[in-house]
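Backbone Fold Data
Goal — fold tokens
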Amino acid sequence: MAESPQTSSVKARLGEITERIVRRSHDTRSRYLDRIAAAAEKAPSRAKLGCANQAHGFAACGPGDKAMLREGSGANLGIVTAYNDMLSAHQPYEHYPALIRAAARAAGGVAQVAGGVPAMCDGVTQGEAGMELSLFSRDVIALSTAVALSHQTFDAAVYLGICDKIVPGLVIGALSFGHLPAVFVPAGPMTSGLSNDDKSKIRQLFAEGKVGRDALLEAESQAYHGPGTCTFYGTANTNQMMMEIMGLHLPGASFVNPNTPLRDALTTAAAERAMEVTALGNDYRPVGRMLDERVFVNGIVGLHATGGSTNHTMHVVAMAAAAGIKLSWDDFSDLADITPLLCRVYPNGKADVNHFHAAGGMAFIIRELIGDGLLHRDVETVWGAGLDAYTREPRLSSEGELAWQDGPATSGDENVVRPASRPFHATGGLKLLSGDIGRAVIKTSAIASERHVIEAPAKVFHSQEELQRAFKAGTLTGDFVAVVRYQGPKANGMPELHKLMPPLGVLQDRGQKVALVTDGRLSGASGKVPAAIHVTPEAADGGAIALIREGDIVRVDAVAGTLTVKVDPAEWAARTPATADLEASHWGVGRELFGSFRAAVGTADTGATIFAVA
């Protein structure tokens, strides 16, 4: 069938954007590929290690595993796990190592838990001091991954992680060992409980004082009720989408519920596949070579098509930099312009990720994007060459055998997923803003079109708690733009600011025009209030957001892509930055240990990372 002019045009623009990333990254990517090629040659096999080194490496193994590691030729598979049993998303990983070890032994090799990485939950720390460690935990996880693999006894690695900072940290760490193959193994979402829409309503009622804490806790407990990721489409589930569309998961693995036969079969198959793609066989797939510029472009397209988390405007940049690839927010914006929004999953709709999966899920979305010329289909994946395999879904036969079948050709519910020919919006749900306040991103997919432009006087705050106090005092009257600054990575670690959303949502529902401008974060659950987030440079780094004064007219324009303040240019140039006392954010709950991180961290648009940017 001949391509339509539209598909041909989209393909051409996709190619142009990808090619400019390739040109921009040429030197850094070349150096990275040279380094991992050298590591593949120099990395000692177990047979080349000293006898004491080898003995330490298999001392705790059983007789069979010890014999294989000592004398055999099979692969040794490293397991890097984010397991803990207080977080719903990571609790299912408890029994994964046993499944992976059994699969490795069946393949003639061995699997060992190489190390653990921390996994903190933004839901638990939301609005608390611990949230100021959240973004930095990503880079701690990358460092922990490097430590886990530093023994250099492994031929490939599987990564057990699912939530917000864990997956990006694992990817960065895996790319520091880019000569090793890597397979990411999800745990899946919890089953559906109280709807996200009903949960949000209870939160707003609580913010207004119309229901008490008992009602709020009961609603939250009904929503977050079992093992697995939270069911809304925030950063954790965006991670899973991205790992699949970037070819690091097995096809169709992302959204299968935990503790089911299919979930366990997919985990076993992931371990088997990791054993097959080592340098010991003839299908060697080092992760650093596999994750090229086209793969990262595919990930960004998936982000836009599904209305995913704005956190990935930082995470993807940081992950790509670890592979020697230079991404910019302009790339995100230009890809959003050619990518249709194909999904409505909360907070961009009423459905949760289980509904998304049932309505067609990843297989349907990938097929539609391939058909519309919006994905590089010829990339390498852990499953093989090309993305076509990712238009198929895993199933168990009546005998319990794992197999893949073609995914649905049509949407099971067009209120949740739609074909590219009938999208929810013609362009992706993310917009880059720039102007005299700085650069920022805004997620538009959940915002009513009449709220895409807000111009109003500024009300300035230096914490989300300060805004909440103003709300409770009844002083947030009329139309306004809330400017919440000194919330960036250098200031206090860039915590998520979700406590802002219920009061701002209440005021918006009352008919006020409100918007948020902040150098902090809101992730994938920013919801229905216009929010220009990740403003860079941040206030603590000399950013112009620190010049805004109470009553200045601020314009957030998601149509024109601008973020401006209506102040006489001479007056604006003469202003000095407002200051904030950040001492309280630098001590307690371990924050004193992260002073070097705050000093070294880069800007949001370069990934907000402590590592050298490509």
